[in-house]
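S.,

As promised, the zinc ion run. Input:
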Amino acid sequence: MKTKFSLAVYLAALGLWLAAPASAQDLGPHFKQVKDGIYVYAAVLNEANSTIIRTSDGVVLIDAGQSPKDSYVVAAAVKKLGSDPVRFVIHTEPHPDHVMGDFVFSPPAVVVAASGASASMKQSESFSPARIERETAKSPEMRDAFKGFRLVPPHVEYRNRMTLTVGERTFELYYLKNVHSEADTAIWLPKERVLFTAASVGVKRFGNHRPFVSIPDTLDAIRMMQALKPEVVIPGHGVPGTAKILDDMENYYDALMKGVTAMVKQGKSLDEIKKELKVPGTEDWEGKDRFPNNIEAAYRAVKGN
Ligand SMILES: [Zn+2]
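Predicted complex:
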């Protein structure tokens, strides 16, 4: 009798388990569940994150993945979750490692980005036929993944702020000025306290600062995002974590600005600063070759240009 009862309980538990939604591990080795129904994917450390967000009214995707190959992995995961097709793709930035795979989801997905994203994509060499041919030549799998490729300029471009409601979830989009690309967006889910920072911050990694990137503007963006008090922070690239990601980056830029300011006051040239300046706490950071470029950005800010 006792055995029968146990068996019944076991079978009931098995039934529940089979009916339960897929866990992050069922989706594949590179998926990480950060909250109920929110799964972050990146096949290789520091490649662009792509995040599946389930809602009662369909899936919202934050970025399409490093390459179309990754977009197909994400599309397969969406299918495994038993969800409807992706309804919205929100771009954190218009660079190819975030948007190349849009065509995998759209149509039917509507693509949303900050104002300037389409212009940036259309001007970029990254989407030229020659460049696409180089990408597809990397492997037979990549050639397959690029079949049917077409650039999908965002259907919706917002200015400054936008609120998107899908099912029970709210997405607040904030335009971030001069932090990385021509059209960077932070995405905040206030109920879940989940924040997507775009490439305004990295995780133990130096960013590449294009000539228009401003460290004071980036510090403003970081402080705006800290004030939201997020529980989960998902950068454009790198392992998701907590608000410590923002704090570490704020400390780094503060120290960098102070260091460059002090050396400029001592009359040192940009070349001398590049040779001499060290920022403690960054010894184990990746992308050291970008540090001189970070010094240039700080130097521009100190000199007021
Ligand atoms: Zn980028």
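Residues 22-303 form a domain with the Metallo-beta-lactamase; Chain A fold (CATH 3.60.15.10). Residues 15-20 have pLDDT under 50 and may be disordered.

- D.
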